[in-house]
Amino acid sequence: MEKETKKRSWKEVLRLHWRGVKVLHETSPHFFISQVSNGVVGALTPYVTIWLSARIINELAGLRRPEELRYWVILTLVTEILLGLLRYGLNQWAAALDKITSVREDLGPYVKKLFTMDFADVDNQENKEKLATITASQNYAGLGFYTLRIAVCKLVSNTAGALGALALTVSLFTTPVSQGSPLSFLNSPLFLAAVLGVILLVTLVSGYLNGRQNSLFLNMNDEGNLGNNFFSAFAFIGTRRKASVDMRLYHQVKVVRHYMRENKTFSYGGPYEKKVVKPGSWYGGFSASLSAVLTGFVYLFTCLKAWAGAFGVGYVTQYVSAVTALSRNISSLLSIPGELQGNADTMELIFSFLDIPHSMYQGSLTTEKRADRQYEVEFRDVSFKYPNTEIWALRHVNMKFQVGRRLAVVGENGSGKTTFIKLLCRLYDPTEGQILLNGIDIRKYDYRDYMNIFSVVFQDFQLIAQPLGNNVAGTMEYDRARAEKALIDAGFGDRLAEMPKGLDTYLYKELDKEGVEVSGGEAQKIAIARALYKDAPFIILDEPTAALDPLAEAEIYSKFDQIAGDRTAVYISHRLSSCKFCDEIAVFDHGAVVQQGGHEELLSNENGKYHELWHAQAQYYAQEGMEAAASPLPERSLAEGQ
Ligand code: ADP
Question: Are residues 280 and 185 located together in one domain of the fold?
Answer without folding.
Answer: yes
